[in-house]
Amino acid sequence: MAKDRKQTEDYAGPLKRLLLGVLIVCLLGLFLLWRIDSPRVERFRAAVVDKVVPNLDWAMAPVTGTVNIFRDFQSYQRIYQQNQELRRELQRMQSWKEAALQLEQENARLLDLNNVRLDPRLTYVTGVVSADSGSPFRQSVLLNVGARDGIVDGWAAMDGLGLVGRISGVGDNSARVILLTDTSSRIPVTVQPSGQRALILGDNTVAPPIDFLEDAGKVRPGDRVITSGDGGVFPAGLLVGRVALDPGGRLRLRLAADYERLEFLRVLRDHASPRIDTPGNLIAPPASQPTGLPEGLPSGPQSLLAPLGAPAPARTEGGADG
Asked: What's the chain look like in SS3?
């Protein structure tokens, strides 16, 4: 028995080495065959692939199934994570909805207590953006509403959420809206909650700069920016956007309006309040009313504004006798 085992071991060693050498030679030949650039060899390789690869589908089926199972597991894991995020977001939305309802009820109670009457003239006209004439030098859009719809030059245009621009040029059936990003646009605004006054300067970019701030240290990125109503350019309280900080450290405006999809615009009817152009009775009462001045002093706005060195008005007879 020991002799037979020794003879088997003597034959097994050379046979293994022989098979290993044959395998190495075959692999080397296969490598060289696959590297030869010849039409005949190419046809031979194609024939080998056609014969061998389809027959190996049964061997690759478990591997393909395992890979598909792993991908499905990853997909289910992502869906589960998204579901959890949506649940958390829904909870936050419900809390925000409850807070909004409470604020709405409180606002209604306050309006009722103060007997506030909203101005019925604050309405709007909706127009469709019929053309976009944006260019590197001028940014504006055309609306299909005009003078026939009561549009007046200078009215504000919004896209439903934020301010877009102002009417600049009105025709019978169309009107042009100069966007806030245009270089000719200058909008007075208020930054909340700090209450800082500033100007939005259009520079043909999607994020116009914020300039002329009273105290820039009180303004933070994310603060709301609304129109201030200064100069009668726009009604006060219209949402414009939020403050952002560019890489250069300059404060800019992230517009609330979606400038990439301007399809419908609302033109706000702005019935400006009457302005006081004359002083009226604010400086001095009329001459017919008693002034309460000592006797002998001139009365009336004309006498108060008389230049120095002018002759004083003659005293009345009653005043001379007194």
From this structure: CHHHHHHHHHHHHHHHHHHHHHHHHHHHHHHHHHHCCCHHHHHHHHHHHHHHCHHHHHHHHHHHHHHHHHHHHHHHHHHHHHHHHHHHHHHHHHHHHHHHHHHHHHHHHHHHHHCCCCCCCCCEEEEEEEEECCCCCCCEEEECCCHHHCCCCCCEEECCCCEEEEEEEECCCCEEEEECCCCCCEEEEEEECCCEEEEEECCCCCCCEEECCCCHHHCCCCCEEEECCHHHCCCCCCEEEEEEECCCCCEEEEECCCCCCCCEEEEECCCCCCCCCCCCCCCCCCCCCCCCCCCCCCCCHHHHCCCCCCCCCCCCHHHHHC
